[in-house]
Amino acid sequence: MASIVITGGEPLNGEVWISGAKNAVLPILAASLLADGPMEIGNVPHLHDVTTTMELLGQMGVELIVDDKMRIHADSRPANRHYAPYDLVKTMRASILVLGPMVARFGEAVVSLPGGCAIGSRPVDQHIRGLQALGADISVENGYIHAKAKRLKGTRIVMDLVTVTGTENIMMAAALAHGTTVIENAAQEPEVVDLANCLNAMGAKIEGAGSNTLVIEGVERLNGGRYDVLPDRIETGTFLVAGAMTGGRVLAKRARPSTLDAVLVKLEEAGAHINSGDDFIEVDMRGNRPKAVNITTAPYPAFPTDMQAQFTALNAVAEGVGVITETVFENRFMHVQELKRLGADIRVEGKSAIIRGVPRMTAAPVMATDLRASASLVLAGLVAEGETQVDRIYHIDRGYECIEEKLGVLGAKIRRLPS
Ligand SMILES: CC(=O)N[C@H]1[C@@H](OP(=O)(O)OP(=O)(O)OC[C@H]2O[C@@H](n3ccc(=O)[nH]c3=O)[C@H](O)[C@@H]2O)O[C@H](CO)[C@@H](O)[C@@H]1O
Ligand SMILES: C=C(OP(=O)(O)O)C(=O)O
């Protein structure tokens, strides 16, 4: 299994280009199943999850071409297999995003239940309930969701809790339903807005994206079209934390600062100087050690759970004691044990991690357990004395494009060891 080796101690300094957002490109690729014409998707990050989604769509009969600018051309008109197998779904939970589009466009779908993962049980009951409210006939047999519908019918759906992919699945299905759908308690994440913008560019009629109420007037058909994916706010935040933890200066280019308010507030509280414009954010620590911050994760616009592990790593070397409370997933502290191997002083009590910053961490072999846990270990490796080896790095390739090259450009001593 491939690993990443980092020699800590260098303050990062320089500029880094931010890639397209993983959590936007995946639903947008799934949305290509709704289109009655070719789609061209730009600013696509080179990620393992994108490859998996392409494999999934390809198995369904969608024709896919990646051009020399890394734009994906997707034509779902030939799609004739409305099936998402366990083998692919188990490697990427976001595969569930094909359920809504398939049942809306083709009248049937068979999708493996995604099951839990390292960060929590992650049920999909809200996806199923929403599609049933739209008139889909759904049963779960032998680990597969079977959905059927002649034509979905618009209705009012109040989500029991805020779910990102749940909102996206129902929004995509409702886009082709007969009549108007109102989704209340909808997720407001920027990636939900990006998907709504893409669907509208394809001919959908969706209003309210970015608020907690979505109004979707169903249309008879959706065209293809061109769409560029928004920049990845979690990748951006991860590089900014890397700058802050190492006492350095990092300029994230082609970023979207308006999607990172809660993260930037915490970086400022940690002592970072922030300078941002329309499409860039610079963090400058001027050689200082960060101050510990308290954080509570919650749905957007609050602090994102996908930045929790990175700030746990920052607090581990900060001055003072920081408390991080995770309210979105029930088991998202798997990185704590590994950070402790590097010398961090962290105690987990229920939903909170109490982190007493240490002046220095020291290298050790550590193991990645999920995507953002891996990122936090790489960040810790950047400041730990000696050579830290992070194993099971395939997790990081799900969501970070060329992470070692990008950190290398910023001055990190980092290299990948092939398996
Ligand atoms: C591909 C993608 O966009 N992934 C993101 C998405 O995941 P994902 O969409 O899977 O996360 P959700 O927003 O659905 O999950 C939020 C909470 O709701 C629970 N839940 C969700 C659905 C459901 O039917 N029933 C239920 O109980 C989950 O177990 C979790 O505790 O949002 C998460 C929360 O911001 C992020 O961490 C992920 O990076
Ligand atoms: C949890 C994440 O992703 P996914 O929902 O794809 O597992 C993440 O991006 O941190």
Automatic annotation (TrEMBL):
GO terms for molecular function: UDP-N-acetylglucosamine 1-carboxyvinyltransferase activity. InterPro entries: Enolpyruvate_Tfrase_dom, Enolpyruvate_Tfrase_sf, MurA_subfamily, RNA3'P_cycl/enolpyr_Trfase_a/b, UDP_GlcNAc_COvinyl_MurA. One of its GO terms (biological process) is UDP-N-acetylgalactosamine biosynthetic process. Phosphoenolpyruvate binds at residues 22-23. It is found in: Cytoplasm. Its main location: cytoplasm. It holds the Pfam family EPSP_synthase. The modification 2-(S-cysteinyl)pyruvic acid O-phosphothioketal is found at residue 117. UDP-N-acetyl-alpha-D-glucosamine binds at residues 93, 122-126, 306, 328. Pathway: Cell wall biogenesis; peptidoglycan biosynthesis. Transmembrane segments: none annotated. The keyword Cell wall biogenesis/degradation applies. It is an enzyme of class 2 (transferase). GO terms for cellular component: cytoplasm. Keywords: Cell cycle, Cell division, Cell shape, Cell wall biogenesis/degradation, Cytoplasm, Peptidoglycan synthesis, Pyruvate, Transferase. The keyword Zinc does not apply. Residues 7-407 form the Enolpyruvate transferase domain. PANTHER family: UDP-N-ACETYLGLUCOSAMINE 1-CARBOXYVINYLTRANSFERASE. Belongs to the EPSP synthase family. MurA subfamily. This is UDP-N-acetylglucosamine 1-carboxyvinyltransferase.
